[in-house]
Amino acid sequence: MIRPSRRWAASLALTAAATLAASALSSPAAQASGANTAPTKARAAVANADPDGPEQIHNGTFDSGSDPWWHTDNITFDTTGGRLCADIPGGTVNPWDVIIGQNDIPLVQGETYAFSFSASGDPSRVGKAMVQMPVDPYTAYVTANPELTPAGGDFHYTFTSPVDLATGQVVFQIGGSATPWRFCMDDVSLKGGADPEVYVPDTGPRVRVNQVAYLPKGPKNATVVTEATTALPWKLKNAAGAVVASGTSTPRGVDASSGQNVHSIDFGAYTKAGAGYTLTADGETSRPFDIGAGAYETLRSDALKMYYPQRSGIAIRDDLRPGYGRPAGHIGVAPNQGDTNVPCQPGVCDYSLDVSGGWYDAGDHGKYVVNGGISVAQLMSEYERTKNAPTAKPMGDNALALPESGNKVPDILDEARWEQEFLLKMQVPDGKPYAGMAHHKIHDENWTGLPQLPHTDAQKRQLHPVSTAATLNLAATAAQAARLFAPYDAAFAAKNLTAARKAWAAAKANPAVLASPSDGTGGGTYDDADVSDEFYWAAAELYISTGEKEFQDYVLASPLHTSDIWGERGFDWGHVAQLGRLDLATVPNALPGRDQVRASVVAGADKYLATLTAHPYGVPYNPPTYDWGSNNLVLNNMVVMAAAYDLTGTRKYRDGVLQGIDYIFGRNALNQSYVTGYGEVNSHNQHSRWYSHQLDATLPNPPKGTLAGGPNSGIQDPLAAEKLKNCKPQFCYIDDINSWATNELTINWNSPLSWVSAFVADQGDGTVQAPGKCQVTYTTHGQWPGGFTTQVTVKNTGSTAVNGWSLAWSFLGGQQAGQSWNAGITQSGAKVTAKNVASNAKIGAGQSVTFGFLGTSPGGANPNPDLITLNGAACS
């Protein structure tokens, strides 16, 4: 299954040919040894050009003035002393606001060039030097970001030209500074005949562990890269260096995903919590790690806190996110041109829409319904799990430090609402062609460069055509939002349900309106030629929320309902039938054959668990090539295993998740965590226009808890193509801001990270929760418009009496428990708590008590709850 490129499609057409031929990780010996050497950094590499080769740069020493160098109008040249200097003005926004360049540089396809120069900055700045196409889209064949200091430095780079070009261009982009500074350069050279640079990542010690934490009573596994073929002794040491456990490794042979010969280590028998543990084997000592649950409680919040700074249309408050405060982006305040009144692309529509708000999709300023759809759905699903899973713990109000905190709504729903309101705005108004459908996306007319804060983006914004996929994403998320927001905002819930019904009808009337794979200028295409999975997902969500026969019949008739949808590559924005299947299995509903739906989720989990067990690195994902955003696919496969645990309580599925998370946090071939701020060595230069610290020291790195896309065998961007040629799948990654194919951040990659981190945090220290000794019969005897009556019987199946009881469950949506008998009932949001009265406080062994209540309902489905707890323990 080949996945459509998730973004940058038009740029790929122009840059896929720009495969820079510097080899990367092509040495099997280096891979087998774990590539345990320091990284070759471009600015420090020696460009070994042919000394007799022709010099492509004219007057690179500035001994005869500045010709033929040119500059933008806001600077002047000073060549006093035989070097070129310029005073760079402050108050510029973009790097390209100040440029020094030279034109008509000939490039020969297949030739490897050495590009070098000396340069300084006072005060220090990060500059940008490129050899590129001289006209739009200015495709760069090498991009360098030298750190310019007052003392100056020499910088050397190599690249292989993908084109024959007589009019190449060398440019130094040095704008984007709030304050003035002075730039100087000398000895600029570009020569052919260079040896391609070999990039070797620093993979650190050959013992690979989860650098964050293992749960005390959960599984604990590590991988050792070694040439040994027989078992090796290992030792676990605490922070004081004392050996606390020991054993021998299990040889696993050569791992195809990394090309390394590896052994596995299982030290799960050691259960004492603590910090600073290390694992030693084959003469190598791992990076330190903890044994404890605290890190995942923090990650549960951090993974969600990433979304607030991604918001469009609102100023980000520095008091809520220190270091990340910024003005509101795209609210129609100069230089922004939107998003409060955005027109369509020419010929698409005759109206403009207010589509302000929502989350910026990734490292650019685009907003996409299909990617926003899966992202907001997974956040809502994370919340909905707290209503239906025995181990789930709710995250309430004031948990995420949001502007909405304190409004008596769970913060995770507040964050989800910010995106859901944007999705609603993308629906075509009544009376217009395609009314009820959703525009596929909204973004800049042309691609912008890095760095670029949202409020400084002056590009024209445009609505793109409607699509069936976007329309069904809206139908699905709006149906889900209708039930989840009903206890907190009935009007917003009703608005969502109306929008969902309208979108469903519009999609059925227009079932094959597909996004164009060529519509990729200024934003990703997100094209999808098969929308049967979107129809299935939307029908499932509408059925769960309404219980209506139309949607039930559609679900049951869909071939996807009974097919094996658990592919080895997982699910993502373009493959969403899994979202529908998971919710049908885990959210209360009365679908005929629901037991088979649940069994299918367990079968999918078994597949991923088998993959994990067979993988020497313990990954529930092992295709022959890794996909764009592979880390989110790994996590989504863990979501399936976690759902199986919620459904069955079988420990192996929970342990699969706990073991799978190790890969994300360092038990991988590169020996690094892919989550910013977690692990001794972690991704922190993800591709982003405003978390661009690598390019501008005044800007931050991505927020703590941000997931990098991860290894991608496609290596579609020029930097990855230069550094990672011939890479084994796990090595197809580089933590560099210019590698948008391997290292971008996105809202739909953080959503499964958030979901899974919450699941892991819910497991506490890893102790398996015992089921309660109780059995509940919940019967709704009568329903009428606006109301219902329910009787509940709870039986004590234990051998000792229960003295005082509290029974709890959650309604699907906006139902409210009212008058009761034989119990005192209270309700908060959707959660209902029934407590004994004086006369029935004691339930003897084998005995039962019965109580009942009258309820009110806003309409829609009112299924029996899946989860009812007695004094906190789940009943059968």
From TrEMBL:
Region of interest (Disordered), residue spans: 31-66
Pfam family, one: Glyco_hydro_9
InterPro entries in the record: 6-hairpin_glycosidase_sf, 6hp_glycosidase-like_sf, CBD2, CBM2/CBM3_carb-bd_dom_sf, CBM2_carb-bd_dom_sf, Cellulase_Ig-like, CenC_carb-bd, Galactose-bd-like_sf
Lyase listed as a keyword: no
Gene3D superfamilies, A to Z: 1.50.10.10, 2.60.40.290, Galactose-binding domain-like, Immunoglobulins
Stretch forming the signal peptide: 1-32
Keywords tagged on the record: Carbohydrate metabolism, Cellulose degradation, Glycosidase, Hydrolase, Polysaccharide degradation, Signal
Domain CBM2: 767-876
Annotated EC: 3.2.1.4
Catalytic activity field: Endohydrolysis of (1->4)-beta-D-glucosidic linkages in cellulose, lichenin and cereal beta-D-glucans
Residues annotated as catalytic: 735, 744
Top enzyme class: hydrolase
GO MF term list: hydrolase activity
This protein's record includes keyword Ribosomal protein: no
Family: Belongs to the glycosyl hydrolase 9 (cellulase E) family.
Name used for this protein in its record: Endoglucanase
Organism listed in the record: Sphaerisporangium rhizosphaerae
